[in-house]
Design a protein that fits this description.
The protein has a two-stranded antiparallel ribbon. About 50% of the residues lie in helices and about 0% in strands. The chain has one domain (about 15-355). It has 18 helices and two strands. Helix 5 packs across helix 9, helix 7 runs antiparallel to helix 8 and helix 12 crosses helix 14. By secondary structure, it is mainly alpha-helical. Mean pLDDT is about 85; it is low at about 1-10, about 360-370, about 370-375 and about 380-405. It has helices at about 15-20, 25-45, 55-60, 75-85, 90-105, 105-110, 130-140, 160-175, 180-185, 190-200, 205-225, 240-250, 260-280, 305-325, 360-365, 365-385, 390-405, 405-415; strands at about 285-290, 295-300.
Length: about 425
């Protein structure tokens, strides 16, 4: 098996298969899961076959992320409505990417298209009060302005609701620091880890969210002719809690930060293993690439799985195995087909924002509205006025200090 030559990644450690331990059965299941999940996407969106798209009972019942992160519904909305908008200058593009991923909910911004281009105010016309009023409007409909895909950190400013935290602190701080973000993105000295370390200083941006920002930036060169950041999905990826659990299932002796060392090993093994599985099933693995000229996805034969896709697959593998072996509560909702066609391939006439909106007359009515309002009130009570630990205050203080002086951050990171 020939190994592909890649640029240096700054977060890898040498991988020792013997020291890592090795569960051959789980390794095989990992690649079979990847194959089955990608075949569902191909049958559904490329072949346009009717359901059911799989005989895999786990995938037939439960919702899992796509193999390619950019194929997920939320990323597709962002790419189609923000990243592929050539009318945005670079600064405005980065600003809107950061705001969007901070909330990561298409409906929050689909409902704002009548107010702002791309559903997000332009950098130059941003008003803190107007943006906060929009988030309040989303809440008034009984909707959650934030994603349900992962937890949003609330430890930003003591004594405020989570909406106030993000509207009064997080988004305004991003706005104030866009020039610094642009400087770091275009700098030729920084490595990816340093860039992500800076993104983590933004309030509300845990290591997970900073990694999400980074991956969104990689889409710019994939889907457009722009090059703002020189790094790609093989230059950096993180070790999330889900992927850590997935690593332990395959390499039980790998611990802590050393777990990330297996990513490149699995990436290099993927082509061979997936080819074997494809031949066994009578159809080769459908890798996918974006054709900029034709503005459509194409199925290709060459393995193009990035380190980020390996990381994401490991996270999904931990959930998959929990369901397959009945070893814990499934941490994914039941599957419901919502997307009818590939979002980034839609024409302007087909790109309807209503496809991303909940029918509030039906969905938020009567007792259901009351239950959602009570649940929201309970959530707010749990996050407002609760005793803050010393660690919380230290985090808040560090965030404020980091963001008060952009020149100090540049001096530290760039040695200026």
């Amino acid at each position: 098996m020939a190994l592909r030559v890649r640029k240096k990644s700054y977060n890898r450690k040498a991988f020792d298969l013997e020291k890592a331990g090795f569960n051959a059965e789980n390794l095989d299941l990992f690649f079979r899961m990847i194959y089955d999940r990608q075949m569902i996407w191909k049958r559904r969106f490329i072949d346009k076959a009717p359901a059911p798209w799989t005989t895999n009972e786990v995938f037939a019942k439960y919702k899992f992320c796509n193999l390619y992160r950019e194929h997920d519904r939320s990323s597709q909305w962002e790419i189609r409505n923000i990243i592929m908008d050539n009318s945005l200058d670079d600064k405005n593009l980065i600003w809107k990417i950061l705001v969007y991923r901070t909330f990561n909910n298409p409906e929050t911004f689909a409902r704002a298209f009548v107010k702002w281009p791309n559903g997000i105010p332009d950098y130059d016309s941003y008003s803190q009060d107007e943006f906060a009023a929009h988030i309040e409007e989303i809440r008034s409909l009984g909707l959650n302005p934030f994603t349900n895909a992962y937890s949003i950190t609330g430890n930003v400013v003591a004594g405020e609701t989570i909406d106030d935290m993000f509207c009064k602190t997080v988004v305004p701080t991003i706005h104030r620091n866009i020039d610094l973000v642009m400087t770091l993105l275009t700098n030729e000295v920084l490595d990816p880890e340093q860039l992500v370390s800076f993104l983590m200083t933004l309030p509300g941006a845990s290591s997970f969210i900073a990694h999400e920002y980074y991956q969104d930036f990689t889409y710019i060169s994939i889907y457009t002719d722009r090059t703002i950041m020189r790094f790609d999905q093989n230059d950096y990826t993180n070790l999330g809690p889900g992927s850590s659990q997935g690593v332990r299932l395959i390499f039980p002796k790998l611990k802590g930060s050393a777990q990330i060392s297996c990513y490149e090993y699995l990436q290099d093994l993927a082509e061979e293993k997936l080819e074997e599985i494809g031949l066994e099933n009578g159809e080769l693995m459908p890798y996918v690439a974006w054709n900029k000229e034709l503005r459509k996805y194409e199925v290709i034969s060459e393995c193009n799985l990035s380190l980020n896709q390996i990381e994401g697959a490991l996270c999904e593998f931990s959930k998959y195995m929990r369901i397959l072996r009945n070893t814990g509560r499934p941490r994914c909702p039941e599957f419901e087909a919502r997307t009818k066609s590939i979002i980034v391939e839609r024409s302007d006439e087909e790109n309807l924002q209503s496809d991303f909106m909940t029918d509030t007359d039906d969905f938020i009515s009567g007792r259901r509205r009351a239950r959602r309002t009570k649940a929201l009130d309970d959530f707010m009570k749990a996050h407002v006025g609760r005793p803050r630990t010393k660690a919380d205050l230290t985090v808040n203080l560090n965030l404020n200090l980091n963001l008060q002086n952009a020149e100090q951050i540049l001096t530290k990171l760039l040695g200026l």
